[in-house]
Write a structure and sequence with these properties.
single chain, mainly beta, Lipoxygenase-1, globular, binds calcium ion, Stress/Tellurium_Resist
Length: about 180
């Protein structure tokens, strides 16, 4: 069921995984954020942010992209300045997709995957993908505006069996 935090402002999402075994194709995981407006909160995203797509107003930023999971600690970092998002945006969903270019890859095949969501030094969520081991993509977090305009956070790990493109279009389809 996960946690519920109200009044979140600037949030950092980090993702880690271990590289694929030597000699095998690299495992490339991607953090994807999708924004939604009040007109269509569970439909198509207003815009998405990932390694190849920036937010038009700079409020959601992919600070670090890894294509192979090499290195220590967290490999990808996304920052959301929810407190700066224009009022038209009422919902933001964050997910993780595994690139499928070398054949179908699921979370269960990637070693040591995990994510952490923080506001400043407060950890809002820290978890792995064991619950969606058979999936190729998963949402991890949902942020929604409440009646007063503040943002609420919910951890929302939900698996999808799609490639990253299809996932980006579908990840907002149901509430957390
Ligand atoms: Ca990546």
């Amino acid at each position: 069921m996960g946690s519920l935090n109200k009044g979140v402002g600037k949030v950092e999402v980090t993702l880690r995984w271990d590289p694929s075994p030597l000699g095998s194709p690299a495992h490339d995981l991607d953090i994807i954020a999708a924004t939604y407006t009040a007109d269509d909160p569970y439909g198509g995203p207003a815009y998405v942010v990932h390694f190849d797509s920036r937010s038009p107003d700079g409020t959601i930023t992919l600070n670090r992209d890894s294509r192979d999971g090499q290195g220590f600690g967290y490999d990808e970092v996304l920052t959301l300045e929810l407190n700066r998002l224009a009022p038209v945006y009422t919902r933001v969903v964050v997910g993780v997709a595994i690139q499928q270019s070398h054949g179908r890859r699921t979370f269960g095949e990637i070693v040591n995957t995990g994510f952490r969501i923080r506001e400043s030094y407060t950890v809002l969520a820290e978890d792995g993908f064991a619950g969606v081991a058979a999936s190729t993509a998963a949402t991890i977090a949902e942020f929604t505006r409440d009646g007063s305009g503040g943002w609420e956070f919910r951890q929302a790990v939900r698996g999808f069996d799609t490639d990253p493109n299809a996932f980006a279009g579908a990840m907002g389809s149901t509430p957390a």
